[in-house]
Amino acid sequence: MSISSRFSVGIHILALIEINKNGTSTSEFLAGSVNTNPAVIRKIIGMLKGAGLVKVQPGIAGAELAKNLSDITLFDVYKAVNVVQEKELFSVHDNPNPDCPVGRNIQAAIVPVFEAAQKALEKSLGNVSVENVVDDIIKKENIS
Amino acid sequence: MSISSRFSVGIHILALIEINKNGTSTSEFLAGSVNTNPAVIRKIIGMLKGAGLVKVQPGIAGAELAKNLSDITLFDVYKAVNVVQEKELFSVHDNPNPDCPVGRNIQAAIVPVFEAAQKALEKSLGNVSVENVVDDIIKKENIS
DNA sequence: TTACATGTAACTATCATAGTTACAACTAGA
DNA sequence: TCTAGTTGTAACTATGATAGTTACATGTAA
Ligand code: FES
Ligand code: FES
Known about the structure:
Two copies of one chain form a homodimer. By secondary structure, chain A is mainly α. Helices cover 53% and strands 7% of the residues of chain A.
């Protein structure tokens, strides 16, 4: 199991819109950098738009940032592209046997632990902004 | 996306072996509590055995714990049943465009952040032992 | 009116999960 | 030694998500 690359692509898109801010970031342009199909980009941009992270309009070329990148954390992107449902990072087998002491209690015993772990993951993502990522890219680019 | 229920089933199996320690925990017995097929249980028990968590022998009925449950954390089970590969909780789209400043740097910029998040998740799982889960089950069972 | 973008639907290929059936290998007890 | 019962595995199926692809209606602006 792996969390969908929509997440990394979403970050990529936001970073590239920023770095290309003097140009026009069409889905085709973005697709060229990510190396995928423009329709895939448009789908993901639609999700970012739904979360209020970018501005796009039908017929008008180019996506723009709707917020300052320092106000967008990776957790925001993660939520926007919907790669993991609320409280459902871990799946729990359903229909355990209610006639068994373990079967009728293990879900209640396990779920809070799973939720805490998911929270820890998400908190970690919330500590990094997309601006941090862009700064890192710029730094790496200047060195090499 | 969701992490395989092999994980929750693995925890279930270990907890039930403990609670049923005076009886014989065959794959059929365990399957009755988890509510699945005995072959599914045998596959998962094989993984738990590979990680040194349980003892089983061909032809001999019943699985037993190979360690004290207080020495088995949920992280140990998680590793054992192989639900998430090392450093691969998040998938990153490959083949980004090397001619693009973002394309050629974003992987290096993102991967450490993803790894830190995965580590946070795993550390959280490491804080809970299967014994904690069993104790919780017993407590819930006595109250109700 | 023309050229070009976005938004979406429909479809495909690929893969992991979970379950199912079947059977060989093995053990222990009659 | 036979027999019954169990584990370990392979092979197969059904289901669902991912990622990509094509196509096209809708919309904008020169
Ligand atoms: S089936 Fe999940 S704990 Fe019993
Ligand atoms: S950062 Fe992933 S393709 Fe560019």
